[in-house]
Write a structure and sequence with these properties.
single chain; mainly alpha; 2 domains; 4 helices; 75% helix
């Protein structure tokens, strides 16, 4: 990866990180707002509980995404970005263009996903 590509990737990761942080703040505010509302009948209570649970799950997913972006930034600084963390082979540029935070090549990612589904 040449210097220009590294710079472009660094900017893309910085933008991704900024978007994640903004989304996390927004989600946290929505969760807090759900907690403040007055509960009426049992249906309202159930809907509030479901909404809060959904928002918390989305918050967790966004937090994981932020962590993967941060890890990609660390790998980039260490000169390790673009190398599969499982097999050590190069991650294809097309994959990195689509998923800049990728730490696994397509083969290893597919294998890991298959293991999760079993």
């Amino acid at each position: 990866m040449n210097t220009s590509e590294k710079l472009r990737l660094s900017h893309a990761l910085d933008r991704m990180r900024s978007v994640c942080v903004t989304r996390l703040r927004s989600m946290r505010q929505r969760i807090d707002a759900l907690s403040i509302g007055e509960v009426g009948d049992p249906v309202d209570l159930a809907l509030d509980h479901i909404s809060r649970g959904t928002e918390q799950m989305l918050l967790e997913l966004e937090w994981r995404h932020l962590q993967s972006v941060s890890a990609a930034q660390r790998r980039l600084c260490a000169g390790e970005h673009g190398t599969c963390s499982a097999c050590g082979r190069a991650i294809r540029r097309r994959r990195l263009a689509a998923l800049p935070e990728a730490s696994l090549c397509l083969s290893c990612a597919a294998r890991r996903e298959a293991q999760r589904n079993n």
